[in-house]
Amino acid sequence: MDALQLTFKRLRRARRTALIPFVMAGDPDLRTTEALVPALADAGADLIEIGLPFSDPLADGPVIQRASSRALKAGATPARVLELLGRVSRRVTTPLVLLTYWNPIAQYGGTSGSGAPFLRAAKAAGVAGLIVPDLPLEEGERFRRLATQVGIADILLASPTTSPVRLARIAHAARGFIYYVSVTGTTGVRRQLPADLLTGVRRLKRLTKTPVCVGFGISTPAQARQVAQAADGVIVGSALIHTMEPWQRQPVRAIKAAAQFVRQLRWALG
Amino acid sequence: MAALDELERAFRGARRDPAFRKELQGYLRDYAGRPTPLTFARRLSQTIGRGVRIYLKREDLLHTGAHKINNALGQALLAVRMKKRRLIAETGAGQHGVATATVAALFGLECDVFMGEEDMERQALNVFRMRLLGATVRPVTAGTKTLKDACSEAIRDWVTNVRTTHYCIGSVVGPHPYPWMVRVFQSVIGQEARRQMLATVGRLPDYAVACVGGGSNAIGLFAPFARDQRVKLIGVEAGGRGSAPGANAATIVHGSPGVLHGMFSYLLQDRAGQILPTHSVAAGLDYPGVGPEHAYYRRLGRATYVAVSDREALQACELLAKTEGILPAIEPAHALAYVAKAARTWPRGSIILIGLSGRGDKDVGTMAKHLGHGRTPAHV
Lengths: 270, 380
Known about the structure:
The structure holds two protein chains of two kinds. By secondary structure, chain A is of the alpha/beta class. Chain A has helices spanning 3-13, 30-42, 62-73, 78-91, 102-107, 116-124, 141-150, 164-173, 197-207, 221-228, 238-244, 251-269, and strands at residues 18-24, 48-51, 96-99, 127-131, 153-155, 157-158, 178-181, 212-215, 233-236. In chain A, helix 10 (221-228) runs parallel beside helix 12 (251-269) and helix 11 (238-244) runs antiparallel to helix 12. The longest helix of chain A has 19 residues, at 251-269. By secondary structure, chain B is an alpha/beta fold. Chain B has helices at residues 2-16, 18-32, 42-48, 68-81, 95-107, 117-122, 124-132, 147-160, 178-186, 188-200, 216-222, 251-254, 292-300, 310-324, 330-342, 364-371; strands at residues 38-40, 53-58, 86-91, 110-116, 136-140, 165-167, 207-211, 232-240, 256-260, 263-267, 303-309, 351-356. In chain B, strands 1-2-12-7-8-11 form a six-stranded mixed beta sheet, with helices on both faces. A four-stranded parallel beta sheet of chain B has the order 5-4-3-6, with helices on both faces. In chain B, helix 3 crosses helix 14 (310-324).
């Protein structure tokens, strides 16, 4: 059983919802991220999702776009981010899940385009799962096979507009957990979540035993608690990054603000 | 993915539907002004010498001033068929934005056009035109503030409003079915040109040359000649200020394979797979990717791809204006510049077909800035 399965099994037994904060590696610099990840773990994160910046983050709203630009400016290349994760994963027991887009994966370690060198490097760095929002189910079969061989969970996304047929295929192919996108659209803070969100999550959960975690738009402890009624996990990204944005030159305060916010979310989820 | 599947189904259905084809042909003829003429460029041919004969496919004479209207009309009719009430588009030079705003007005659809802030400055006139046509121009401030980021922002809007909105992509880029669909809509250029060549010259050209940014006018010109192996196809990319990273937008010439905006094609990228900033004096070519069918032609060896510099393209604008009384947009001037340069080594009496994808009214400011006034024509 891998780290993600163990974590969700433990949480299920304790009847707890996984809290999954998302941060961008290298935002505003790699040293901050190195201190931030253990702080998030201490504040009560069950899993930590870390973004590897890409120049053209199509699935992301303005907050994470800004974080990506800052990280790229700070020199957060795939090689450096994986190096950092290698150090961090030795310090925390919380499983780390990496999010990035297909092109940096395909270009890593030469031009084979298969993503195999990236998967091996990510595994060596202690990464438990990988989310690639622009690699659809239909195009990712070979990559998923490679990921399974290497021992990394290829985490698939599903959204409210995913057709029932495709949802069933995703449920079947899913590893680690399924990332259910709460809204049609990009990541980012939303004042209100769609009314039919919980119905959508429950429909998906009937199709699979794989845990279903919900992200995109969840920005307050109250929203997190609402989603937790149906979901196995709650992913909070833009709102968390937003709390750190005023403290770009003061990493200690940024980390403190982030940890504080994660504690609030933890408290709301129980 | 659901939206792409829906679009593919709708397009397949529409293509087979004689009523749809007839309606589109009607608009292309009565509204856009098709067929466009094939003009023999006599004085330009003489200037270049060696007995070459240059023919221009005059997409610059279309309504709204460029080939973009062919595709915009097709996609707008498709949007109406899919019962979408709103069109969105990305635009670089503004030509596709204007074309989309135009067809949105024609069919009574809402329209939002995403445009990089930098391009809005470069193409202020087109921004105003789009607003006059009732469209909302949404400035894009992310990333490099040009076409690539406008494209990303349009995709983001589309996934957010997918139920009511059709994303009218302006070139043969993006995820399937776009590269195929836009090529089908633009192939009218090559189909007409092929017929016209046979009718007026009595044979096919030796060379067909077009500029390539995303590559829609080029693929539209090339595709109907693809099986005519003796017609050499040449795509001319934006060489900008040189071959250094960030100094050009010559994706096939200087790039490598990768994935952007849902397509696998050549990209201008660094070794870590980050997309590089691009430069071209022609906003319509300023894009770090290229249509995947061009990548395919290149792999097959069916077409060759070359680059010419900003300066060469600007000089070619002046050359065509002074020899033929036609002021081309800076984009197709890249194709002219290449022909002016390369025809010296081509066989005597070659027949050359150039896709003149748009007119230069939008670029007069840029030309004035770079070429200055009152100079004699630059000889290329």
